[in-house]
Amino acid sequence: MLNRPASDTQITHARRLWLYAVAVLVMAFLILPTFVVIPMSFSDSRFLRFPPQGFSLRWYESYLTSPEWMQATWVSLKVAVLTTLLATPLGIAASYGLHVSRVPFSRVLTIALISPLIIPIIILGVGIFYLYVRLGVVNTIPGLVMAHTILAIPFVVVTVSSGLQQYDSNQELAARNLGASRWTAFRTITLPQIRGSIVAGGLFAFITSFDEVVIALFISGGQNTTLTRRMFTGLRDEIDPTIAAISSLLIVLSVIMLLILVLSNRQK
Amino acid sequence: MTAASDPALQTGDNAAALRADELRERATLLGMSVPALLIVGVIVFIPVGWLFWLSFTDGDQLSLTHYRRIADITHARIFWQTFEISALVTVLALLLGYPLAYLMSQLSPRWAGICLIFVLVPFWTSLLVRTYAWMVLLQRRGLVNQTLMDLGIIDMPLRLVYNYTGTVIGMLHIMLPFMILPLYAALRTVDMNYMRAAANLGASPLRAFWTVFFPLSMPGVIAGSLLVFILSLGFYVTPALLGGGRVMMVSMKIQQDAGLYFDWGAASALGVALLVITLGIFWVLSRFMRIERLYGGR
Fold it and tell me: What is the ipTM of this complex?
């Protein structure tokens, strides 16, 4: 086995062992640090020692019984759901319109829609804060949803556009030739075929909003402090093990979302 | 193809009507992108334009006061440190990311998919959570120090966090997937027939790699490196938490000026400087990869 060629250059697996070793180490570096948080969250000590001493659920209890943490969680969930509901249709409509109309400047418009990914987020944070002070929407849910929507739209546009590129739009023309209206053709022919990209875009939108920190530092506070904002300020002051419990739950959430993504793409 | 572009139809009386129809349809389709463009315009372009305006005015008149204020040694140091950290993180990410991306590009789809999971899981995990994990791991009595002491490599705990070292380690971890995904996409497209030819002509595997494969993978290397570099330039959360106040990057200075001192002039001038540098590098990046594909891997 080890002496068999591993690639077209006839290099053997044995001579390539170092490459496998490096790759395994890099994968370990990518994944292990994050998961260290999970055993920590079950520790019964205030100090984050590894391996954790004793087993307890006290940090989960402290999270679930804290009105501040619960409120922050609700704010984040509410904002993330509303952002997904707003950004996904807007993103689908925009990428479909730009893709099908094929006007010369549609690439420029696409880049304009993607620009929130290009502009350093701190600049958006400062700028949006400056705007929101004048609009009087600092520390409000609608303000947060609008700010997170512009961060989520690029992801929806990117995933849906790549879905549209892989799909043959002549099918839609065929449907229209047979008498279907544009909307019916889109709904019954195109939509089912780009469903995977839409699911991906929606998941992106949700996670982008739910995990967003920097903009929330500027425009969320008081009653409407987001979970990540509260975590960030908590981490700056002291390492509270309650955050280990919250982090573990967030890791589980991300893995679930990734699973949904992988499964929804496999169905295609 | 639409009816109006068919020459046979254009000769008839219907031509004008058809063209009007097509124009109307195109306008409707383009109209579908208006809501998204509108919200991006209001929430992104107005504030950024405002920052530009603020940075070039003092009171009510045009002036370069704010730029003169940030053209001093303190700010030069901050910019230098930002560049240095970003460059270091980029080089380290390339050194760690290339071997994995290379191996993935040659594995069967099944194994490559398994490896890809290891890249995607951290990519999908909140960067705040990952930064927190590093705070726990790297602290004085954290897992890394304890392991090193148990192994007898060190006697005293190392200062691994709340400084430069911690910032670089944390940023490297966050940025690695942004390096690996474009690299992997590029390496997959390299035609392995060239490697076969090189081997056929007597090149050792190592030589074939360096003279044939590596040069062909340069677009991916450049795209991944530029992406990681610009994302690092504007990075805030991880350096703010893992730097412990000993590391000052441009983004942190902007936050301080705006959020703490309400010094909008300085914050906007710094922001514009950072934005111009970022967009400049993006322009270079756009010649190596389509910006629309940027996060396609995620």
Answer: 0.90
